[in-house]
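Support request, please re-run this one:
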Amino acid sequence: MGGLIKNIFSKKNKQKVDIQEEKNNNLLQDNDWIEDDFEEGQLSVDVYETPKEIIVKSTIAGVKPEDIDISINDDMITIRGHRHIEEKINEDDYLYQECYWGTFSRSIILPTEVKSDKIDASLENGVLTVILPKAKPKKEINIKVKER
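Re-run finished. Output below.
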């Protein structure tokens, strides 16, 4: 973003921008712990429903069950986890680096109430499946249309 600002402002104002960027960089260096908390990957999910359940599936290969945290808060489910890299590789040695390593999370608003005490979560072959039983199954009602 800083580079974009520099290109928009005139040379006279550029000096002010550089000074402000330096202040921002110093602020970020003093608060490096903040940056760590905000660098989080977003988990990809499939969510579908049956008449009795809501099912959440996600591919999270390389994550151990003890590194996954699932929580329910009102009408939202949050899945958090951490994918650990097993070996230290020098940045210069990478030819491609597309895999995400580190913390990830995803919050999903649920379309209906669920029985939180009956939720089941399992991890098989790198696929997380969370089954959320619906608290009040929707009943399908057919309405006949009358001609007048």
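Strands lie at 41-42, 46-49, 53-59, 68-73, 76-83, 102-109, 120-124, 127-133. The CA atoms of residues 2 and 21 lie 7 Å apart.
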